Amino acid sequence: MQDSLISILIPFKNTDKYLVECIDSIVSQTYKHWEIIAIDDHSTDTSWSIMESYEKRDSRISVFKNQGKGIIEALRKAYSISKGSFITRMDADDIMAPERIGVMHSSLLKSGTGNIAIGGVKYFAKDGVNDGYKRYEEWLNRLTKEGSNYSEIYKECVIPSPCWMMHKSDLDACDAFIPNRYPEDYDLAFRFYENKLKCIPSEKVLHFWRDYDNRTSRTSEHYAQNYFLDIKMHYFLKLDFNKQVPLVVWGAGKKGKTIAKKLLEKEIDFHWVCDNPNKIGKDIYGKKMLSFEILQSKKEWQCIVTVANVEEQLEIKNFIEKNKALVKIETFFFC
């Protein structure tokens, strides 16, 4: 096991500006027993020829064409070809820290199956990283440092998609890349959660995440907010919703209204609350908007919080903390 083969799956499309830096960062890894399975998802630039040149020089590198379309089908093809007993992913425009593969492999050997190795991430961009990505990086690294990633899984994707490694048997148990649900990385994170895979804490930055204007996560419709909400609702109702406990949705903004609509469509009963006096008492979609103080009227609640403002979220947390001796409120922050 000390010299386990690590399969590195790399879907790529029109990333010729960054591929050399990406692949060189893998070739330079301190751990050497790996294979790259790279799948070209219909590139129209010189990406294929770049990968082909690496394939000719290094027997550990294989490149294939995606017969389907999109990242999920590319990942499926890569996975079907892979031979490693450990699996990891890589984005074709990013950079690995030199010790990434070795550190992750070592931590998995120590922890055994049922665990997922993750690492800290750092964003970089030609013109600087915007505040939104900086906040995401800080939030993600805080969770990764503690290994508490699932504690906030309904906020955002808590597993950095190009910076995890696991035993192949565990990935198979999670259905690997079989589902067609986008965003595929967020869906996979929920399946890790569903299968109770433990996140191994890590303080080390192991992955450098490149940001630029036409990155897939910025431009593809599959990464729009409605897709994220669909995944959150799907897994909340499947994994955490308790029909025996009254459900409340807190917040009547755009996200709150979308969630309320979805619950109404599924004929799931809920109370809808907010702290905005201008909205309290109004009828929206046939539901009367109530004051959040209704939460003091029962002994137990499940609460989906849709309020995005950080200060307001803190007020909500303070309210719940103040009342915890009288009321049990299980909260799920959806933003």
Structural notes for this entry:
With 335 residues, this protein is of the alpha/beta class. It is built from eleven helices and 16 strands. The chain has helices spanning 19-27, 47-57, 71-81, 100-111, 131-146, 168-173, 184-194, 216-219, 225-240, 254-265, 310-322; strands spanning 6-12, 34-40, 61-65, 86-89, 95-96, 115-118, 120-124, 164-167, 198-200, 205-210, 247-250, 271-274, 283-284, 287-291, 300-305, 328-333. The strands form three sheets. It has a seven-stranded mixed sheet with strand order 3-2-1-4-8-6-9, with helices on both faces. Strands 13-14-12-11-15-16 form a six-stranded mixed sheet, with helices on one face. Helix 10 (254-265) links the parallel strand 11 (247-250) and strand 12. Helix 7 packs parallel to helix 9 (225-240). The protein is elongated, with a radius of gyration of 22 Å. The mean pLDDT is 95.
In short:
The chain is of the alpha/beta class. It has helices at residues 19-27, 47-57, 71-81, 100-111, 131-146, 168-173, 184-194, 216-219, 225-240, 254-265, 310-322; strands at residues 6-12, 34-40, 61-65, 86-89, 95-96, 115-118, 120-124, 164-167, 198-200, 205-210, 247-250, 271-274, 283-284, 287-291, 300-305, 328-333. The strands form 3 sheets. A 7-stranded mixed β-sheet has the order 3-2-1-4-8-6-9, with helices on both faces. A 6-stranded mixed β-sheet has the order 13-14-12-11-15-16, covered by helices on one side.
